[in-house]
Amino acid sequence: MKLKLAIITLFAVVFTNAQNTPLYVGTFTTEDSEGIYHYQFNTDTGELTNQTLSAKSSSPNFITYSPNREYMYAVNRDTDETKPDYVTAFKVEDNGSLSELNMVDSNGKGPCHISINKKGTKVVISNYGSGTVSLYDTNKDGSLNEASQIFDHNSETEKSHAHSAQFYKKDLFVADLGRNAVYQYQLKNNNYSLESPAIIKMENNPGPRHFSISKNGTYIYIINEYGNSITSVKKTKNGFEQIDFDSTLDENYKGNNSGADIHLSKNERFLYASNRGENSIAVFKRNKKTGTLDKIQNISVHGDWPRNFTLDPTGKFLLVANRRSSNISVFSIDASSGKLTFLRDYKVPNPVCLLF
Questions:
Q1: Distance between CA atoms of 142 and 325, rounded to whole angstroms?
Q2: Fewer CB atoms inside 10 A, N or C side of the chain?
Q3: Neighbouring-strand partners of residue 309
Q4: What are residue 4's phi and psi, to 5 degrees?
Q5: What is the pLDDT of residues 18-57, one digit of tens each?
Q6: In the beta sheet, which residues pair with residue 329?
Q7: Do 174 and 183 contact (CB within 8 A), yes or no?
Q8: Of 148, 149, 144, 112, which Cα lies nearest the Cα of 127?
Q9: Which residues face 103 on adjacent strands?
Q10: Are 46 and 356 contacting, i.e. CB atoms less than 8 angstroms apart?
Q11: Mind telling me which Gene3D superfamilies this protein's record contains (predicted)?
């Protein structure tokens, strides 16, 4: 009987562990936070447990994994404004803690976004304050070299605010909120060069902030911070063209708002966007043949200032980082309709980036 109970207990532990996946949370450390936090997320129930501080770090406000998930990279804002901001490389330990490998200069002020290419060889960061974009080569041990390229988007008449950048094959796309443009760079002889001034003309200064690229690279969905809208773009033989434009706000909402984050669902049938002010997630149904969108829901985030959100690896849950209310809200996703249902929320200090 004791053997049978032991086997049942062991099976329960193994099954529970199989359901759990790590979630890392980047934060601003201006208040209660100390750095990057680590949780266990149950992909069956949507529960968050086992909060631990993985690494003390100064305002690690955006984080990303290497493709093999052995390393993590963070952009940091120094609490001492007289000192330069920087990028930190970490080794991910088996227990979820992060061991610092090295730090390099961000070559700008106010770094706010970081991403890595599929090979894990190049990292790009966006410096909002200075309007610069910095590229780094990685080493075999996961550490970073000093910046190999720095792009300055400022002009004599316009102030740049680079807000996000993503690799897609040999392309590098950069959303510049200040210059009201999304730029395309292409890799040539191991260096990136500007392919065009902007992929499309953005009318009425909507302020492109973040974007999501379809798996085949044909469609780019851009969330606009000032315009509270999504600009849908299609790649053509001769470049890019706008195919759709949609508000992220409920038609009855009349207050102030700033668009923030955007993600396609795993199956690309739905698109999600966050509103800071309305404090909502806007849900869109996507036509996979034409790439166009139809809004089907605006739902409260049960918090304040949803700067970032993410979908869990199963695609069954959506988690929102509410910066000002210091909580993470968990929603279930209806597989058929794409609509969200609020489940619960968890107190987390100043969350601004969620990473599965």
A1: 34
A2: N
A3: 320
A4: -65, -40
A5: 799 999 999 999 989 999 999 999 999 999 999 999 999 9
A6: 320, 345
A7: yes
A8: 112
A9: 88
A10: no
A11: YVTN repeat-like/Quinoprotein amine dehydrogenase
Residues facing 207 on adjacent strands:
none
**Alpha-carbon span 320 to 329, nearest angstrom:** 5
Beta-carbon neighbour count of residue 189 at 10 Å? 5
What is the predicted pLDDT for the residue at 29?
97
Which pair of tokens denotes residue 171? 């392309």
Say if residue 210's pLDDT is above 80. Answer: yes
Query: 3-state secondary structure string, the chain?
Result: CHHHHHHHHHHHHHHHHHHEEEEEEEECCCCCCCEEEEEEEECCCCCEEEEEEEEECCCEEEEEECCCCCEEEEEECCCCCCCCCEEEEEEECCCCCEEEEEEEECCCCCEEEEEECCCCCEEEEEECCCCEEEEEEECCCCCECCCCEEEECCCCCCCCCEEEEEEECCEEEEEECCCCEEEEEEEECCEEEEEECCCCCCCCCCCEEEEEECCCCCEEEEEECCCCEEEEEEEECCEEEEEEEEECCCCCCCCCCEEEEEEECCCCCEEEEEEECCCEEEEEEECCCCCCEEEEEEEECCCCCEEEEEECCCCCEEEEEECCCCEEEEEEECCCCCCEEEEEEEECCCEEEEEC
Q: The tokens of 107 are what?
A: 């070559």
Q: What is the pLDDT of residues 46-88, one digit of tens each?
A: 999 999 999 999 999 999 999 999 999 999 999 888 899 999 9
Asked if residue 308 has pLDDT above 80, the reply is yes
Within 10 Å of residue 350's Cβ, how many Cβ atoms? Answer: 22
What residues contact 310, with CB distance under 8 A and at least 6 apart?
263, 318, 319, 354, 355, 356
